[in-house]
């Protein structure tokens, strides 16, 4: 079976963690919390975390761009999850053992079916020819985004396969402090992981669009650099999240020089998210979306509504992405 994408089963926390028997602030129905200790993860030390690139962790849903049927395609994250009965056994084991280590899965019987096009993520481990679930009992994977599937309608709104383009939020090439919404050829995004954020994703912590005129964009992972990153030390990081303007983010992902990724989430430090206005909204944004499809063979009728609405705003500058309002 082909394996796709760079998403790991779980990006480790920059600190060693411990489990507290309290209801999770992040996952509904989870009767424990994973919290950071003040000990830096040996994996992070080994990967020279202090020289790593610190980037903003965005609150959205993960996507990936790679080939499907010979063409560049957007893929949505779809974890293969256990059946209700198997999940009940797994939770019971976790409750009594205080760990998931040692639990045995029957992947053929214990997991829900997925579309034939579903592909496990690249770093999923295999045993006896079957993918190994992660600590949450999920098998990370991907499914191609099809505009006919209503489950992924918001993913589909940011991509046009006839035009071979996607709507991307990124720093402006001439001014890193300025963000831009741009129509980008899918070929330029090949083999990249991106985060879909917007009106109908994760409660819309960034306040994008409106119910009547939703707005969604893709943000390449690692592209929003934290300019004045705090030292990797528990108390300094916690203070940074609470007191620094740049700290009004969901978390940090460090990109180490050896390719290892480590993260910290506000929940690891006992902090709320969202908590006030997000730092993303403090940055001005300009719109650069092509008026017509870049592919001369594509029909103008295929240029989707979101693309067309943003094309009408090309050249306009806003104080924040939250202020980008679309007309019906």
Automatic annotation (TrEMBL):
The keyword Signal does not apply. Its cofactor is Mn(2+); Mg(2+). It catalyses: ATP + (ribonucleotide)n-3'-hydroxyl + 5'-phospho-(ribonucleotide)m = (ribonucleotide)n+m + AMP + diphosphate. GO terms for biological process: response to reactive oxygen species; RNA repair. Keywords: ATP-binding, Ligase, Nucleotide-binding, RNA repair. One of its GO terms (molecular function) is ATP binding. Pfam families: RLIG1. Its EC number is 6.5.1.3. Functions as an RNA ligase, in vitro. The ligation reaction entails three nucleotidyl transfer steps. In the first step, the RNA ligase reacts with ATP in the absence of nucleic acid to form a covalent ligase-AMP intermediate and release pyrophosphate. In step 2, the ligase-AMP binds to the nucleic acid and transfers the adenylate to the 5'-PO4 terminus to form an adenylylated intermediate. In step 3, the RNA ligase directs the attack of the 3'-OH on the 5'-phosphoanhydride linkage, resulting in a repaired 3'-5' phosphodiester and release of AMP. This is RNA ligase 1. It comes from Ictalurus punctatus (Channel catfish).
């Amino acid at each position: 079976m082909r394996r796709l994408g760079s998403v790991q089963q779980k990006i480790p926390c920059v600190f060693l963690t411990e489990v507290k028997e309290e209801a999770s602030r992040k996952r509904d129905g989870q009767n424990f919390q994973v919290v950071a200790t003040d000990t830096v993860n040996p994996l992070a030390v080994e990967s020279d975390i202090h020289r790593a690139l610190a980037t903003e962790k965005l609150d959205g849903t993960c996507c990936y761009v790679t080939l499907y049927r010979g063409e560049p395609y957007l893929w949505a994250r779809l974890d293969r999850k256990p059946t209700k009965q198997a999940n009940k056994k797994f939770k019971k084991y976790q409750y009594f053992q205080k760990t998931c280590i040692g639990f045995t899965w029957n992947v053929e019987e214990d997991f829900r079916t997925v579309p034939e096009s579903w592909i496990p993520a690249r770093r999923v481990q295999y045993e006896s020819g079957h993918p190994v679930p992660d600590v949450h009992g999920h098998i990370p994977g991907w499914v191609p985004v099809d505009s006919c599937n209503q489950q992924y309608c918001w993913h589909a709104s940011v991509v046009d396969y006839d035009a071979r383009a996607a709507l991307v939020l990124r720093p402006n090439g001439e001014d890193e402090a300025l963000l831009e919404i741009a129509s980008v050829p899918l070929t330029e995004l090949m083999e990249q992981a991106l985060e879909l954020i917007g009106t109908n994703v994760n409660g819309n912590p960034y306040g994008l669009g409106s119910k009547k005129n939703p707005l969604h964009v893709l943000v390449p992972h690692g592209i929003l650099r934290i300019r004045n990153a705090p030292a990797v030390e528990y108390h300094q990081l916690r203070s940074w999240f609470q007191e620094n303007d740049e700290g009004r983010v969901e978390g940090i992902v460090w990109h180490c020089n050896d390719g290892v990724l480590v993260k910290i989430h506000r929940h690891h430090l006992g902090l709320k998210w969202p908590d006030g206005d997000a730092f993303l909204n403090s940055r001005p944004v300009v719109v650069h979306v092509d008026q017509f499809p870049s592919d001369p063979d594509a029909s103008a009728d295929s240029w989707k509504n979101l693309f067309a609405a943003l094309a009408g705003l090309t050249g306009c500058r806003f104080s924040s992405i939250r202020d980008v309002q679309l007309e019906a």
